[in-house]
Every structure is written in structure tokens, then in C-alpha cells.
Amino acid sequence: MNYAEILTRLGIGEADLAGGSLAVRTPIDGSEIAKVPELAPEKMADVIATSKAAFKKWRMVPAPRRGELVRLLGEELRAAKDDLGQLVTLEAGKIFQEGLGEVQEMIDICDFAVGLSRQLYGLTIASERPGHRMQETWHPIGPVGIISAFNFPVAVWSWNAALALVCGNPVIWKPSEKTPLTALACQKILEKAIARFGDDAPAGLSQVVIGGAALGEALVTSEDVPVISATGSTRMGRIVGPKVAERFGRSILELGGNNAMIVSPTADLEMAVRAIVFSAVGTAGQRCTTLRRLFVHDSVYDQLIPRLVKAYAGVPAGNPLEQGVLMGPLIDSDSFDRMQGSLAAAKETGATVHGGARQLEDKFPNGYYVTPAIVEMKSQEQVMKDETFAPILYVMRYSDLDDAIDMQNDVPQGLSSCIFSTDVRETEAFLSDAGSDCGIANVNIGPSGAEIGGAFGGEKETGGGRESGSDAWKAYMRRATNTINYSRELPLAQGIKFDID
Ligand code: NAD
């Protein structure tokens, strides 16, 4: 594979990389692919000023016309799907099928947003006063700052950008410092759509800024950026959330998950095995929705776990660009060290560990490939309550469904969850008010691989934000309640008398 050719096809040329200081390494073999120029945090003020100027123009473009730009973006993404999918694989290390899936998700959200551009509906509300009418209207809000994580280097941007753009807002994107090339590529793809769209799109409608936490903080603390959508670790959210709140900004936080599956006595075990392996091993355990905890009923534990251990032993790991490989590398050596630390901590609690060792070290001395791990726990210890961003699946027995649901909910995170059962009483209990406390609760489907149509996000330490489908668009708009008096009287609400002569 010629990396330079992919970059060229995606429109990234020498001029884009000139003076680059941030080394981009592929997790495939640890080699350097490019050096990308970074923005000094002091320069963020200029970027925000450009965005504010773009906002004044973009908010006046009718929403369905704004939707046309996003429709064109979807077309450009379709044309670039293979190249962008490969670049995702190269930069983030996920297998090519998943790289393509991520780009497809971008295309899907564009389609959704185009429809949405004609459906930014408000309510008409009954007024208590004669000759009055009330309504709720939705308006563009201003520049939207997007901070994204390495593991979904392009889809997260599109969930935010496609909605923000149809809602009438410019966007400023600070991608993960581990995946700046995919961000530059997305910007080029959007620029192609803008060129076809014409003059209605103001300069600076979408800007990408490359850098680390200090640059992110310059975006987060600006009063001129009313919405900050931040995706990443809970550690990052603990810094970003209060900083945005301090200035009364709005944050959409999409943070860590610690997702679970309950396998009940009536589960279809064949389906469960397939769902477990995809959810726990896919993306080398580096999805926010990765399955990390498995609660298996006593009556099926001894059938399921040996099958899982066998299935795990056959997962082909290797270069994620190669066909047939199902698991690529971890993002870097730090990630590998954290995985080993968690496995050691689990062992200390008396757990039985299957797998988890480094592999392919001879072929890729600077790539961190592992065998996925299954860890049989005696009880839900602290190590199980922390999110370790690696393919570790903790498994435990249960005998009572209420206990299993309690254990599932007894972690600080609240992103995704599921139950495998063919008993409607169990599945409904799981989905009920007393059931899963997560933002995503599924039945007979694993916790990962969400569609864009639903609102995506989770509770507790996951941050509470919602992105993508359903009514997530409302977070990108300013809501106004209007009361209109078409009578010749001036009655006050609640019947208050306040007469002047
Ligand atoms: P990370 O928190 O290290 O970095 C995420 C982003 O935050 C990066 O762009 C980084 O530069 C930026 N950042 C870090 N500190 C900052 C600060 N003080 N101010 C402003 N920006 C700052 O996360 P990561 O390792 O890239 O990604 C993995 C984590 O992301 C996991 O915890 C995973 O669960 C989470 N994640 C969550 C979702 C979700 O939708 N809930 C989706 C993807 C990833």
C-alpha cells in the first residue's frame, strides 16, 4: 500500500503538511506516516473570530438550502469512501471493514441531516389568554466546537458537523492528536462539497485545528463558542465539562463506557457467542460501546464460556488492511501497558485469565497486537468497574436476574447494555424503569454498533450527552418561546391585575 497515494487522492498535499511538527504514526507497525502542522493555542482566537463571522452569514441561509450542502457532502463521502476508510485503518488501526463502516455512518448521518433540514419543527402551544397564541421556535446558536477521540476519528465529527451545519452553525473541529490526517481529509472532502455548493457557504464555515489538550482548552474556555461537543475519556470530560459550565456554555459530553451483556437461561447461545465476539473483540476492544462485562446465568455458564474461549482462540489478528483479519493492533504501547496492568490486577483478585498476551511481536516490533482476553471473575472488583480501553472481557456468573441487573448498573459509567433472552418477562424487566440505567439498552443484539437513527450517548460518567439521530439536533439550536397577542386587550398571565390609569 502506498500511503502517499491515498493522501494525494484525498487531497492532502505537501502544502498541507509543510512545517509539520506533530508526528503521525500508524499503529499497524509504529512507523511515521507524516508530520502535520499544529496550531498554537494563542491562535485559537483568530479561528473563533472567523467562525463568528461565518455564523452571521450562514444563519441567514434557509435551512433546506443548508441541507443541500450536507447532501453534497454525502455525495463526496460516497466517492471517497474507500480511500477515507483506508486512512481510518491506517491511522486508528481498525480493520478495513470497520473503516468502511465508519465512513458509511458518515454518509448515513448526512442523509438524516438532509431530511432534518426541512424538519426543524417547533410546537404551537395553547395560550391561557384570549386572542393570544404561543409557539416554540428553533434558531441557529453559533460556532460549535467539536473535540473527538482517536477511536472514531471521522464518524464523530460527522454526527456533530452534519447536524450543526443544517441547524445553521459553523464548526471548529479539534480531532485527536493521534488521528489528524483523517481530520484533514474530511475537511478536504467538505471543501469539495462547498465548492459545488457555491457562494452561500461563507469562508470559515468549517475549520480544523490540530493540537493537544491545550488547544482543546482554548476552544472550551471561549465564550464565543456556545456549544462544545467533546468525545473522549471521562478524565477529559471532568476537565472540559466544568470549564464549559463555568461560562454557562452548553456541553455535549460523550465519555467512557463500561458496557455489559446479560445472558439468561433462555438465550439463543449461538447468537450470543457471535454478538459477544463482535462486541468485545471488534476494533480490538477500543470502542466506547465495546462489551467489557458479561453476566452469565449459572445454568448456561459452563456451556457458553468454553465456546467463547474456543472462539477467541480462532480470532485472526494482524495487519488490519489485510482481508480476513478481524482484529488489528492497539493504538500504542501505553494502551498495551494499561491492558497488562488491568489483567495483573484482575489476577490478584483470584480471577482466571484466558489470553491477553502480546502477539506478532516479531513481525511488528513497534505494533502492539494482543490476543483478546477473557477473565473469569469471582465478584465485581474495582478493576471491572474501570474502563480499560482494550479487548478484556470480564465474565461472571449470576443466578437471579435482579442481581445481574444490579451488578450491571453498579459501575460509574452508563453507556450501553444488552440482554440475550427469549423470555419476554426478562427482556421487558431489563428495559423497564427498574432495568438497565444506560443510554443504550438492547435485546438480543450486542452493545456496540449503533445505527445513526437513534440518539447516541449515555448516563452517569458517560457524560449525559446525546448525538446523532432522534431529537439530538435540539442541542445545536437556541430555543425561543414566543407569545403573540393579536387582540386589543393586554391580559396578564395567571389573571394578575396591574391596571394603570
Ligand atoms: P482522550 O480523552 O485522551 O482524548 C479525547 C480528545 O480530548 C482528544 O482530542 C484530546 O486532545 C482532547 N483533550 C484531552 N484533554 C483535553 C482537555 N483538557 N481539554 C480539551 N480537550 C482535551 O480519549 P481517547 O483516548 O482519544 O479516546 C478513548 C476514550 O474516548 C475512551 O474513554 C472512550 O470510551 C471514549 N469515547 C467515547 C465515545 C462516546 O460516544 N461516548 C466515543 C468514542 C470514544
From TrEMBL:
It comes from the Bacteria. Pfam families: Aldedh. The lineage of its organism: Bacteria, Pseudomonadati, Pseudomonadota, Alphaproteobacteria, Rhodospirillales. Keywords: NAD, Oxidoreductase. One of its GO terms (molecular function) is aldehyde dehydrogenase (NAD+) activity. Residues 21-479 form the Aldehyde dehydrogenase domain. Homotetramer. Belongs to the aldehyde dehydrogenase family. Its EC number is 1.2.1.3. PROSITE patterns: ALDEHYDE_DEHYDR_GLU. This is aldehyde dehydrogenase (NAD(+)). The active site is at residue 254. Gene3D superfamilies: Aldehyde Dehydrogenase, Chain A, domain 1, Aldehyde Dehydrogenase, Chain A, domain 2. Coiled coil: none annotated. CDD domains: ALDH_F7_AASADH. PANTHER family: ALPHA-AMINOADIPIC SEMIALDEHYDE DEHYDROGENASE (PTHR43521:SF1).
